[in-house]
Design brief:
It contains three helices and no strands. It is mostly helical and 64 residues long. It has a domain of 43 residues. Helix 1 packs across helix 2 and helix 2 packs across helix 3. The two termini are 17 Å apart.
Length: 64
């Protein structure tokens, strides 16, 4: 059975995107959050990272 990506309901700061990705990859959510921030800053796409987060929050389903 394939793993599915869901928004985290337990490990959320804003909408659960980073927590859900961390659960899917089986890593600490802090690592995902730091990576997301660093990616956004160092690629000079701060708003791109924010837009990507919003799109992910809309697209990734919540666990039912």
């Amino acid at each position: 059975m394939a793993k599915k990506l869901y928004l985290s309901t337990e490990d959320r700061k804003i909408s659960g995107v980073c927590g859900g990705i961390a659960e899917y990859l089986n890593v600490d959510s802090t690592v995902i959050r730091i990576a997301w921030v660093l990616f956004s800053i160092f690629t000079a796409m701060m708003f791109g990272g924010i837009i990507a987060y919003i799109v992910a929050a809309i697209i990734i389903p919540e666990r039912s």
